[in-house]
Amino acid sequence: MRLLPVWLTCDRENGLNLKAMDAEQLREHGHKMVDFIADYYKCIETFPVLSQVEPGYLRKLLPDSAPVQPESLQAVLQDVQTKILPGVTHWQSPDYFAYFPSNSSVAGFLGEMLSAGINMVGFSWITSPAATELEMIVLDWLANLLKLPSDFLSNSPGGGAIQGTASEALLVVLLAARDKVLREVGKDGLGRLVVYGSDQTHSSLQKACQIAGIHPENCKLLKTETCNEYALSPESLTDAISHDVASGLIPLFLCATVGTTSSTAVDPLLALGKITKRYGIWFHVDAAYAGSACICPEYRHHLNGIEEADSFNMNCHKWFLTNFDCSALWIKDRNALIQSLSTNPEYLKNKASQGSTVVDYKDWQIPLGRRFRSLKLWMVLRLYGVENLQAYIRNHINLAKHFEDLVAQDPRFQIVATRTFSLVCFRLVPANKNEDYVNKLNRELLDVVNSSGKIFISHTVLSGKYVLRFVVGAPLTEERHVIEAWKLFQETASTLLENS
């Protein structure tokens, strides 16, 4: 492990007179903190990617109570180095290939730092006009990059808002859809409302239904097939809707996905959208991961049909170099959100809001408080520019293609699903072995490579098959990391097969 920076040997009394906020102390300690973080990134490859600690490890290392007297920054950062970092799974490591990426960048970090420094709570326009107006502007920029319909722009009846996560975005539009229908059919209709997705839709749909009061049996996840690349079939959706209507239920909401979690399947938006319009169903499109790729012209066709959607979401904090959290949501009818989520207590009333001349983002989200998240997205777009962001995405996709080619050259391995973006789904398949054995072998393969600390991957199950997921998306990943990861898979596979 890398040694602490030299400055950490300074006087232990440095922190004793730390003020709540003092410009010169901030300058002094801020420089030291930036040095510490920069050193962390310089040596990030020396850490095990997946934390190797056991549950409860930290309780044994830290005191039972907070210190009565202040401690120095030196002491705190020494504890970060020796006690906290061993319990960190390093999402920014170039050898991190699990789940989906959660990007940091210099621009994103600087934007986060500036946001933290200003530290405003921008729930209404009046609480910080720049925060509200920059958010509207920067989401218009991004909407135009994605070639979204003009209905999603801020000068339309719709517009964009930054949520914390795609799960929050999904919940708020589901609540808007629910309340819009209940205003028409009455509150007693809640038990008849039906929500649709596929069996590949993110689990946040089920959680949103739980929160929104949708009966569990009315959250219908329709089966997908290998022959459709695990995309939602318009025919299966039509059949399900027809059956529910005949049963006296009310079709409410469809969540389609561009880039599913398991395999990055892309649902046919245009065909699905036409079905939802026929039945008056709210159509939401979740592109949390893959939306970033659609700023590249060669991937924009995956959003064809987005004009049929009522709402659209992508996570800038996944693959768009914007530090967590920053989830962009666009909606065609802002009033649907506002009617569902608005509160207007006396202590929040002001002339601008009462005059309906401004946007108050408190009415577009679950919490009242909100951070200045648009600042970091604005800085990412400005400090990198569109061409560099496109090149960044393309590089990861090319690295994933390279890994896919390596897998395809080894007859012991099998590509399980078509690679669309930067996710490769594959597994080890020894000859003449049954499915249970193959699944067990791949579980062992995942456990061994992850416990090595050299890389971190995750898994899924597709058509009953235990599948390894290899996602390229960390900011520091280069070709050498992909090649070394593949060598680790090959060596581990050889050992497992020899011992089986």
Mean pLDDT: 94
- Strand elements, count: 11
Distance between the termini: 35 Å
Describe the sheet with the most strands: 7 strands, mixed
By CATH, the superfamily of the largest domain comes out as Type I PLP-dependent aspartate aminotransferase-like (Major domain)
Oligomer: single chain
Count of helices? 14
Provide the succession of SSEs.
HHHHEHEHEHEHEEHEHHHEEHEEH
Low-confidence stretches: 6-15
Structural class: alpha/beta
In what range is the share of β-strand residues? 5-15%
CATH class of the largest domain: Alpha Beta
Entry keywords:
dopa decarboxylase, N-terminal domain, 500 residues, 2 domains, alpha/beta, single chain, Aspartate Aminotransferase, domain 2, 14 helices, 7-stranded mixed sheet, 4-stranded antiparallel sheet
What does this structure look like?
The protein is an alpha/beta fold. It has 14 helices and eleven strands. The chain has two domains: 7-90, dopa decarboxylase, N-terminal domain (Up-down Bundle), CATH 1.20.1340.10; 110-381, Type I PLP-dependent aspartate aminotransferase-like (Major domain) (Aspartate Aminotransferase, domain 2). Helix content is 41%, strand content 12%. The strands form two sheets. The protein has a seven-stranded mixed beta sheet with strand order 1-7-6-5-4-2-3, with helices on both faces. α5 (166-185) runs parallel beside α6 (204-212) and α13 crosses α14 (479-499). The protein is globular and about 65 Å long. The two termini are 35 Å apart.
